[in-house]
Amino acid sequence: MQSWEDAASIPRSPVTPEYPSSYAYPDQRSPRTGRRHTGGWAVFGRLCALIYLLMIGIAVLLPDPRAIHAMKLDVAHVVQKVASRIAHMPAITVGDIASNIAAFIPVTLLLALGWRRVPLWVCGIVGMVLSAAGEMMQYLFPEVHRRPDIWNVVQNSIGAWIGVAIAAVIFQLFGRPHQEVR
């Protein structure tokens, strides 16, 4: 049986390149599989995105409208304390708008951080589509006693694009611009 030291002395085929042991793959592809190595932060971002999307799905189809109403009032009271000028609006309206916008900021931020090779505008479109799908699910399943509203899609979409803007700022601050698909 040959040892590894003996294998090094075997002549190589002229078509097989010989790489130094410290060869750095310029496009991060594995020499054996051709697959890209995914960094630890990208994996973490993808996992967080998946968990957050599951939470959004549960919140969209939560069959207890009282729980949603109570959550929106809690959000409204916090927002109204911070921004006293909007105190003339009903608390439930403030909470509805603020929670709809805030809910979709992490969606696109996590998508952009988890899938850096996807253009940022695609992450924004995905956020808008997810919002529309959530409202459609509420419409298709009236037994959950939720009211679908086109304004929820608009507010969620605003949150999605805010998440894209935050991702763009993060990529610029850390000197690693978002990689476009080649």
Distance between the termini: 45 Å
Gross morphology is elongated
Label the structural class. mainly alpha
Biggest beta sheet attributes: none
Number of domains: 1
The parts where pLDDT drops under 50 for at least 5 residues are none
Radius of gyration: 24 Å
Helix content: 55-70%
Mean pLDDT across residues: 76
Helix and strand run = HHHHHH
Number of helices: 6
- Report the β-strand fraction as a percent range: under 5%
Give a count of the beta strands, DSSP E runs of length 2 or more: 0
Care to describe what's here?
It is elongated, with a radius of gyration of 24 Å. With 182 residues, the chain is mainly α. The two termini are 45 Å apart. The protein is 62% helix and 0% strand. The protein has 6 helices and no strands. Helix 4 crosses helix 6. It has one domain.
